[in-house]
Structure formats: C-alpha cells, structure tokens
Amino acid sequence: MEKNFSPLERAIYNLTGLETKREYRFHPTREWRFDFAIPAVHVAIEVEGGVWNGGRHFRPEGYLRDMEKYNEAAACGWLVIRTIPSELLRVKTIQQIVRACRKKLTTVSL
Fold first, then answer.
1. Which residues in 23-54 are b (16+ Cβ under 10 Å) and which e?
2. Which InterPro entries match (predicted)?
3. Is 17 within a domain?
4. Which side of the chain, N or C, has fewer Cβ within a 10 Å radius?
C-alpha cells in the first residue's frame, strides 16, 4: 500500500486487507474512472459532489452521463457504492464498503 494513503484507503485495508486505488480506470475502451476502487473484488466508491447546489452530477446531462457510466460498470461486473463527501468516512459508509467486499469475495463467478 502506498505511503500517502487516505483515511478511506487505510480503513478499507485495515478491515479487509484489500488495496484501494484512487482515480481507477475500469473500462477497457472508455476513459471513465472511479473515485476509489478495490480492483481485487470489483467494488467502487463514487463520491458525488454538488448535491445541495445543483452540481454536474445532478443536472440532466451529467446525470445521464453518470447513468451510462454506472450501468456500464455493472455490465463489467462492478458494484458501485455512491456517497457524498460528508458521508464518505462515516461508519455506515465504511460498513457498506466492507460488506460489499466480503460479498464479492464469497460470490462465485459464472
């Protein structure tokens, strides 16, 4: 694990032993990136800014682009957890991420 890891990366590693990558490019042909990804289990964390001030993610065009990205991520086998900045390091968010990782570790690929 890199020396300059964030509190989120540290928490995930301490609780699961899995490495988290920032700005992870997940798609083979598109330039899409996840804010955080745990590639070993195909779990991603997207931090959605601008919830209260009409940011890009919540305007029609941005929302539609996000839908395309998240649907394609699902088609590629990724589980995406969406949160807002103020919720990112809360216990409930970390617990969701850990549960998702554990679930993906126990799921058999077809």
1. ebebeeeeebbbbbbbeebbbbbbbbeeeeee
2. Restrct_endonuc-II-like (IPR011335)
3. yes
4. C
